[in-house]
Specification:
mainly alpha, elongated
């Protein structure tokens, strides 16, 4: 392998295919638009920050050949390892369009010349595709077993924000279940939790038990609220029935009661009914005590859990 100041340290060597290359206006506009759609932070911005380059949005995309040369110098001056600097150059070279199908793209030529490790190329290919909104293609790279999860919270947030139309293509959950990254941000955990809860009730509950204790109660209350305070209909009735029959542990049992009697959940129209049905489901129906006028019960629509609903096994909403 070449030394740290090999051919890639010279701009005219890296861009030997066109030493006066500059980004076109259309390319610049697409990148700027993409950044706006991603909370004003592209994945290349994160890479530049790891190289201690300040103001990523000011230097990328470079507006002229001179700006591109300045960015190249900034990358080379970074205290980061050479391989990390090469990764950023590889990303930038992927922006260069290839007009000759018989010639290897500049990025591939560069990666080969500096012996850029395959796992680095896979990762950069993935985040480059993320920055261009090609999420499904990006996950083909970012879920490779050889990769250590990098920027997982940003990846999940981006995939959630740009939800696919087809319900069977939940890319955020696909990425999470495949990679199993450690998530520290409650906001990201809550987003994942909501995606799970959209298709079921038991799965998010069991999943929440493996999350930091500081977040568990908040997630649990989010689930109770989303299920019981959903729009009226058979789907709400079905999900509510599933919720009140789940095997809560001792803590969750207390959270459930507290949330619906003293917490924000007490204002939910079905709070009292949920407590009543839970008591019956757990064999404590005789001990159920009405929590007072502050609790609200529903006597209309698909969530009525009294009278004829009990006679129908609680699963069939009254007509």
């Amino acid at each position: 392998m070449e030394d740290e100041t090999g051919s890639w340290a010279e701009f005219d060597q890296v861009f030997a295919f066109d030493t006066v290359f500059a980004y076109g206006e259309q390319t610049i506009n697409k990148i700027v638009k993409s950044r706006r759609s991603m909370d004003n932070e592209l994945f290349i911005d994160l890479l530049l920050k790891t190289l201690s380059i300040k103001g990523p949005s000011e230097v990328y995309p470079p507006k002229s050949n001179q700006d591109l040369r300045k960015l190249h110098k900034q990358i080379l001056k970074s205290p980061s390892p050479p391989a990390h600097q090469q990764c950023v150059l590889y990303y930038i070279l992927k922006d260069v369009p290839s007009h000759d199908k018989h010639t290897a793209p500049p990025a591939a030529t560069f990666a080969k010349s500096v012996y850029l490790p395959g796992k680095y190329r896979i990762f950069i290919d993935g985040i480059w595709l993320m920055d261009r909104g090609k999420y499904k293609e990006a996950l083909d790279h970012l879920t490779e077993p050889v990769l250590i999860p990098t920027f997982p919270e940003k990846i999940i947030s981006t995939l959630c924000a740009h939800r696919q139309q087809r319900a069977d293509e939940d890319l955020a959950l696909a990425y999470y279940y495949t990679v199993k990254p450690a998530i520290e941000s409650y906001k990201v955990l809550e987003t994942l939790f909501a995606r799970m809860a959209a298709s079921g009730v038991a799965e998010p509950l069991f999943w929440s038990r493996g999350q930091p204790k500081a977040f568990r109660r908040k997630l649990f209350e989010r689930l109770v609220n989303d299920v019981l305070d959903a729009p009226e209909g058979e789907e709400r009735a079905r999900r509510s029935m599933e919720l009140v029959h789940l095997p809560f542990d001792a803590e969750e049992e207390g959270w459930f009661e507290d949330y619906l009697t003293e917490g924000k959940g007490r204002s939910i129209p079905r709070a009292k009914d949920a407590l009543r049905v839970r008591a019956i489901a757990t064999g404590h129906g005789d001990a159920f005590v009405d929590q007072g006028s502050g609790l609200r019960g529903d006597s209309s629509g698909a969530m009525e859990w009294s009278g004829s609903s009990f006679e129908h096994g609680l699963m069939t909403p009254p007509r």
